[in-house]
Design a protein that fits this description.
This protein has one domain (3-18, 36-254): TIM Barrel, CATH 3.20.20.70. 42% of the residues lie in helices and 17% in strands. The chain contains 11 helices and 10 strands. The radius of gyration is 17 Å and the shape is globular. The N and C termini lie far apart (41 Å). Bound molecules: indole-3-glycerol phosphate (IGP).
Length: 255
């Protein structure tokens, strides 16, 4: 079994549990939804999506000591346009508590990073204050992708649709996705290659689709490369979570 298959098996169990324990009607959302798309449309500046990620299956523990509220506050002060919060417990050491705390701390859109396979997970994320959810094309059939996308939109959420190759990009475009995340990391092999962004950008309709380059970005050269390729935003996790001087790391990456 690949890691992705292992993760999806755990998600199936979580969905069964959630269906028994969680009901959106009993946990209404209290905060309005904060749009990322509007921020992207406001100006041409490259947007930074800063991620809170304690661990990952490919890297193990990245940084288990950081407090999500403090980290999110610093991300906001340094100019991040959105915060991404991993909420998977088993593989990424995250939680919905982290998400709720980040949402309470900052005035930025919050992206819930998880492996969504069922509507109940979307309801749950919505209830905890997520403004955007992630849908990973590689882990869904085209039919489920469309159903989950429509469910999220009905709640008023924005959806980041993640792709890694041409056929996945086609599937994202077929459902009308506006926010397209090109993951430079292959979720099956964990290999990172920024050429994935450079390849897929050519198939994107940049007038109506927003390209977000995700994963493996470390240096100013990396950032310049995906920006040059047409990325409107970058999603950075590990580099920020390992940084001992976030101000310098932001400056270094964006110079
Ligand atoms: O830590 P990195 O290499 O900067 O990557 C961040 C982000 O792109 C990565 O965490 C990610 C991209 N797609 C995902 C899907 C699920 C979990 C995590 C991810």
């Amino acid at each position: 079994m690949t890691i992705l298959e292992q993760i999806l098996a755990v998600k199936k169990q979580e969905v069964t549990e959630l269906k028994q324990t969680f009901d959106l009607a009993e946990h209404p959302r209290l905060t309005p939804i904060c749009s990322f798309i509007e921020r992207c449309q406001a100006n041409d500046q490259l947007k930074v999506i800063a991620e809170f990620k304690r661990a990952s299956p490919s890297k193990g523990t990245i940084n288990a000591k950081l407090d999500p509220k403090e980290q999110a506050q610093i991300y906001q002060e340094l100019g991040a346009s959105m915060i991404s919060v991993l909420t998977d417990r088993q593989f990424f050491q995250g939680s919905y508590q982290d998400l709720a705390q980040v949402k309470q701390t900052v005035e930025l859109p919050i992206l819930n990073k998880n492996f969504i396979i069922d509507e109940i997970q979307i309801d749950h994320a919505y209830s905890y204050g997520a403004d955007l959810i992630l849908l990973i094309v590689a882990s869904l059939t085209e039919e489920r992708l469309k159903q989950l996308y429509d469910h999220a939109k009905k709640l008023g959420l924005e959806v980041l649709v993640e792709v890694h190759d041409e056929s996945e990009l086609k599937a994202a475009q077929a459902i009308g996705a506006k926010l397209i995340g090109v993951n430079n990391r292959d979720l099956k092999t964990f290999k990172v290659d920024l050429a994935v962004t450079e390849r897929l950008t050519q198939l994107i309709n940049h007038d109506r689709e927003i390209l977000i380059s995700e994963s493996g970005l470390q240096t100013a050269d990396d950032v310049a490369r995906v920006k040059q390729a047409g990325a409107k935003a970058i999603l950075v996790g590990e580099t920020l979570m390992r940084s001992a001087d976030l101000e310098k790391t932001f400056q270094d990456m964006l110079k």
